């Protein structure tokens, strides 16, 4: 099973992915941990594309992270796509909360040497994500919907319910998913 999880910063992708990986016992890849090298150094574009191309060849995975430049590759390879489409109020609040909670420390979904700090650019990105990115994501999902299971999460309680259902039903949960775009 190959599960792709996308959405705004602060939407809950990483927390959901960790829990989902624990329930399904699938390998989990937080893209932030691979993209950002210690000291917040970005991976080169060529190296990143090669990494993603190799990653999606694995038999099973959960890939957590938005990274629009490689989204099509991951969508094409995935069986299930989960899009966190939460309001900017929720995501921006969570980004700020996370910045305070982990200030000066490295979050579990990041590479060591990437300590958390207040980043106004990220706060602005989270606030504008739905306005700037949503339409393109929905279009991409519509193009994938013929052969993929697609789940759109609009409220945090939906994520909790999905995790509970998966804990009860395992991978068979995804057989029952109705695509709603």
Characterise the protein shown here.
The protein is of the alpha/beta class. The protein has a single domain, classed as 3-Layer(aba) Sandwich (Rossmann fold), CATH 3.40.50.300. It has seven helices and seven strands; from the N terminus they run E-H-E-H-E-E-H-E-H-E-H-H-E-H. It has helices at residues 13-24, 31-35, 45-55, 71-77, 88-101, 120-144, 156-169; strands at residues 2-7, 28-30, 36-37, 41-42, 61-64, 80-84, 149-153. The protein has a five-stranded parallel sheet, sandwiched between helices. A hairpin with a 3-residue loop joins strand 3 and strand 4 (41-42). Helix 1 packs parallel to helix 7 and helix 5 packs across helix 6 (120-144). The model has no long low-confidence stretch (mean pLDDT 90).
State the gist of this model.
The chain is an alpha/beta fold and 181 residues long. Helix content is 49%, strand content 15%.
Radius of gyration from the alpha-carbon trace, in angstroms: 16 Å
Strand order of the largest sheet: 2-5-1-6-7
Overall number of structural domains: 1
The CATH topology is what? Rossmann fold
User: Which stretches are poorly predicted, pLDDT < 50 over at least 5 residues?
Assistant: none
Number of helices: 7
Going by CATH, what is the homologous superfamily?
Answer: P-loop containing nucleotide triphosphate hydrolases
């Amino acid at each position: 099973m190959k599960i792709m999880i996308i959405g705004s910063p602060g939407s809950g992708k990483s927390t959901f992915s960790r829990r989902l990986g624990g329930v399904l016992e699938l390998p989990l890849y937080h893209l932030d941990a691979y993209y950002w090298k210690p000291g917040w150094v970005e991976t080169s574009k060529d190296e990143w594309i090669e990494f993603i191309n190799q990653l999606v060849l694995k038999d099973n995975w959960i890939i957590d992270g938005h990274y629009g430049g490689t989204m099509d590759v991951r969508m094409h390879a995935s069986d299930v796509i989960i899009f966190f489409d939460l309001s900017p109020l929720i995501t921006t609040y969570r980004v700020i909360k996370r910045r305070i909670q982990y200030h000066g420390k490295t979050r579990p979904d990041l590479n060591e040497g990437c300590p958390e700090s207040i980043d106004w650019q990220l706060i602005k990105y989270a606030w504008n994500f739905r306005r700037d990115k949503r339409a393109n994501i929905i279009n991409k999902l519509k193009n994938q919907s013929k052969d993929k299971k697609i789940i759109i999460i609009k409220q945090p309680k939906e994520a909790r319910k999905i995790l509970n259902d998966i804990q009860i039903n395992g991978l068979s949960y995804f057989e029952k998913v109705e695509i709603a775009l």
